[in-house]
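re: that chain from earlier
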Amino acid sequence: MAQEKVQWRLVSEDVYKTVGLAKDLSNRLADIQFVDETTGFICTVAGGVVRTDNGGVTWRLLYDSAVNRGEYFFLSKDVWFSGYPAFSESNLARTLDGGKNWQVFKDNGVPCFVTSFHFLTPDVGWAVSAGSEIGTTKDGGKAWSVIDCGIQT
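^ sequence. v structure.
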């Protein structure tokens, strides 16, 4: 059985050139997520977001700095979440229209210092924190419950 060759293409240079991001530490590429075969997002350390709608052939800048610094999670082309720590509390923001408008949820029980989160639907999701907390939401992030996972810190 012959193995098919996999072709890899370095897109970072394309991203910096086509969207005009300065190649510095604040624009270091931090995360990439695709929601389907053609639509993908790259996030920078400072919270900038670039988007492709043709499988990574070309990219366009959506934000050059953070609307909400921190983690992004892209559920679809239009439904995104952004979690960001603010000293002793964490906040979550959600957009349902591709980043044009954001709902910010504060003081809603989301674990402090969110390091990652994942959503299955626009309403159901989980978050983990640097303090080993796990949170869950069933209403899109408006309210959170902390799950006891039994990890001692």
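The chain has two domains: 11-66, 67-153.
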